[in-house]
Amino acid sequence: MNYKRSSLLFVEAEKVIPGGVNSPVRAFKAVGGTPIFVKEAKGAYLYDEDDNRLIDYINSWGPMILGHAYDPVVNAVVDKAKKGTSFGMPTEIETKIAELAVSMVPNIDKIRFVNSGTEACMSAVRLARGFTGKDKIIKFAGCYHGHSDSFLIQAGSGAITFGTPNSPGVTEGTAKDTLLARYNDIENVTQLIEANKGEIACIIIEPVAGNMGCIPPKGDFLKTLRTLCDTHSILLIFDEVMTGFRLAKGGAQELFGIDADIVCFGKVIGGGLPVGAFAARNEIMNYLAPLGPVYQAGTLSGNPLAMAAGLAMLNELNNDVEIFNRLAEKTEYLHKGIAKVLNDNNIVYTVNRVGSMISVHFDDSEVIDFETSAKGNNDTFKKFFHGMLNEGVYIAPSAFETWFITDALTYKDLDFTIAAVNTVAKTL
Ligand code: PMP
């Protein structure tokens, strides 16, 4: 494939945008080479500035669960835009999407909309601190909850890729209140709670980790976390920015049958526009301004275009009873196909999958936490990534990211992808 125009556009971008990108993982630093500039996308396909067609397994890092430029979402946004793009005043559509979200997700009474997953997680933690009157939080190494200061402690996603899981600029004062636990290690969490008795406001977790590759919670891990939180008056925050409206209508809470105290959303809930949200039962949400003392606000929060996209998206997901099964079946098919061809080619690998989240690791030990994820062979991953790209398949440009399966993918696309893996495996 030829990426001439993308390369030229990147040179221009680098002159005026740090690293040429507005979010680090887009820069291809983990895999080398020049990022691809997208011209447009439809369904399961991206079309780049050199007119290459790529099957997309990133899907804007999650939101495009029904495929790109999905008609009901696009039409809703276009219709709204003609009536004004922002008012900073209440609109009826905000209540409509809130009602729908509350009806789809277990255990939430109220939801507040913000503009990104980062904002949602940052606000959820502030609310948890305000509500409990405690300062410390527990997060898990390799989990990513956005780029607000408290979370850039052994953070996943681009923070690992760029070697700055602990970013300069985060003060020691902030960092000391973030306690770090190992994913899937309940002993470790128990020790942290014991050593910080009465000081922990919340535990924040990706109920299925997606920012160190895809890592499922093992056995009773989430259930035991719930019990520990109840015993020690700690709020359990599920960061469902990736898993929300993706793994089930009610996200990971529904899939695993576990209630969190606060739930964070992003990605799918905005249908591809900049949206995040956090939600909880009345007792907690009523602690937020203007009802309560915890402050949180946003000029563009509840923006009509964003709400129109989100509402159209949630309506589609709510009305399609088979969608989440269909996505899981497609992902399982892909998993089996990839496993077969990697086995046939004697490649050492582990594939992790939950619902429509999947990742390929080039190591044969079980991938259960940040340490085991980091053991994957990055040189093999780089070759794999570029090989797949050359075959017309766009996967995440880092081994620490999850692939997101969209319903727009046909079985023909999946077969094409498996054949591409077979071709590339011979070169690894
Ligand atoms: N939480 C999780 C689990 C995420 O995956 C992400 C983004 N990938 C975020 C929070 C931050 O969301 P945003 O990039 O919209 O700020």
TrEMBL record:
Q: Which CDD domains match?
A: OAT_like (cd00610)
| Molecular function GO labels | glutamate-1-semialdehyde 2,1-aminomutase activity
Pathway assigned to this chain's UniProt record: Porphyrin-containing compound metabolism; protoporphyrin-IX biosynthesis; 5-aminolevulinate from L-glutamyl-tRNA(Glu): step 2/2
Compartments it resides in = Cytoplasm
Which Pfam family is one of this chain's hits?
Aminotran_3
Tell me the superkingdom of the source: Bacteria
The Swiss-Prot or TrEMBL record lists the needed cofactor(s) as: pyridoxal 5'-phosphate
Q: Which reaction does it catalyse?
A: (S)-4-amino-5-oxopentanoate = 5-aminolevulinate
- According to the UniProt entry, what is the EC number of this protein? 5.4.3.8
UniProt cross-references to NCBIfam families, sorted A to Z:
hemL, PRK00062.1
Subunit note: Homodimer.
| Name the UniProt record assigns to this protein | Glutamate-1-semialdehyde 2,1-aminomutase
Organism the protein comes from: Flavivirga spongiicola
